[in-house]
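Re: Re: token formats

Sure, here are both.
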Amino acid sequence: MTDTHENRPHESVEDSLKQVMDLLARHKLVESLVHKQEMPRQELVESLVHKQNLAELAKKLDTLHPADVAYILEALPLEERQVVWDLVKADRDGDILLEVSDAVRESLIATMDNRELLAAAHTLDTDEIADLAADLPKDVVFELMKSLDHAKRAQVESSLAYDEDSVGALMDYDFVTIRADVTLEAALRYLRMLGDLPSHTDKLFVVERDGRLVGLLPIKRLLVHDPEVHVAAVMSDEPVKFHPSDDASDAAQAFERYDLISAPIVDARDRLVGRLTVDVVMDFIRAESEADMLQAAGLREDEDLFTTVWKAAKNRWLWLGINLCTALFASRVVGAFEGSIEQLAALAALMPIVAGMGGNSGSQTLTLMVRGLALNLISKDNAKRLMIKELGIAWLNGLLWGSIMGVVTYFLYSDLPQALPLALVMSAAMLMNLIVASMAGYMAPLLITRLGHDPAFGAHVLLTFITAADRFCCAESL
């Protein structure tokens, strides 16, 4: 069956959001006006107006792709979001729940009863049910598992058994297999008999009788070669394949490196158990990117844009507390040098420049380190060479910009008797701060990774703390 949204003219999701918001505003306005009017059969008129306005909004939502509806739901405040969600057709609930963010999904599921949740889950494929099951109430999951046949239940249980960052958790069980000893003509007849292919099918998986994977047959080879040729003659017998326990980040890098659309997943005996597709990989990459961005900003988890003040505040407490502790420590370092600052007020004006340069230099190193760790480019073998390289860059930049800082300081405060010593101090402080900042940017992600966290998790906080304390220590010691 073809969805109506597939036949509609192209329209940007932003335009769709604006139209939905306009319809919601009109709905509120008309209802308000009717409610204020005194007329016979007031309740009946209000009901008719209410249904008419919502019918137009429902018709609009029915033309949109589930991903576009998800976007709209995330952009609406809680009250208006509920109005829109109630107008979505029940057979589309499952697809939309998969598209929205975790936080918004939680808010939508909270408004649905068990019967609605079960109906939404039954419209999904096995791998999609596994994705949704983690957010469903336990009693709903129990009823859902009882309603599935043995094969689907086993697949869902298998997916749920894997870590959420593993290939097994992203595995799709809908794929097409053929034998190596059949002709291409026979393979084509088989595909025509199926009538429809799983999405993102760019290759067929060639297996033995026991399910062991022996090769891949790209669709383009199936179409352009002689139909009388056997599959074994044209298949690729060195496929890129994964195991369910493999890290999903590694698989995502392989998809990017080899321009994959789909790839087989095999068990320890090389038997085909599932496949990985590019759409799932793209969703995983996007989720990882968003999680890294939130962690870099000090947020512990995905936050609904329109969540309650209390929930939003709690989500931000962790790193605000850590920031407060590090800031207090840094302030005590500054306090230890109050005498020096009082004697030479120019230090108070110049030290923020040194701090800014150090922070910028450290952020550059930190960004490269986080990227290198995320892509698995940094290992024990090359980590030391990378540290020497970053140290060399810090020395070169420190000498260059420290010299410029010294010259600028001398001309700015040439009327002071301490102008030359001050210029030398600031030049040396710049050099030392850039070195320390660079090493902090190098070490912070490694330390956080060793503690078992994402390298982006709190690295900027640690870097800021080190460079803030270091700039005053440099100036005082010099």
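Second one below.
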Amino acid sequence: MKQASIPLLLPLVCALFAGTAHAEKADSAKPMNVESDALRYDDLKQTSVFTGRVVITKGTIVIRGARVDVRQDPEGYQYGVVTAEPGKQAFYRQKREGLDEFIEGEAETIEYDGKADRVKFIKRAELRRYRGATVADEMTGSLITYDNTSDVFTVDGGTASPAPGVPGGRVRAVLSPKPAAAQPGAPAPAVQPPAQLRSTTTIGGEKK
């Protein structure tokens, strides 16, 4: 694998992984590592294309795919597309801010819209939310959209390319309830004092 280390590319590629309201904020300040078999950068068009076993890491973020296309618009917003090898799925994973939770998704194509701060998983899409090492929520469909700013998921079953194992392109989801949190200001449960021995002046009902 060849490692891409051209400084001019990094601002463009960072589009895929900028910190958001619910994503891990520290990721935006972490160094980015990009590995691929080939790289093409167009300074005039402000585009970069990584091809061949692309692996990108930046803080808690991990991206894998066969190809990653990134462009930047005149306003400075960036947009990225991650494409999988034929028959496989591209991969995206990032920690959520302030929580021991990760968002992890796979699809044939993954799109990032920097202006809307939105990630789309397209065709054979899967999305999982981990609490620690445990899968809390899991969903599959033809198109899954994750809005970082509102922390809202939308899932479309589709008709032309239903997800594997989902008849008729219907959505499949497994959603776990959030762990119960202690109510603010709630009184703590009373702690019973240990039993104590007490002296007595009688034995068997008779005075000493």
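The two ends are 93 Å apart (CA to CA). Helices lie at 10-13.
- S.
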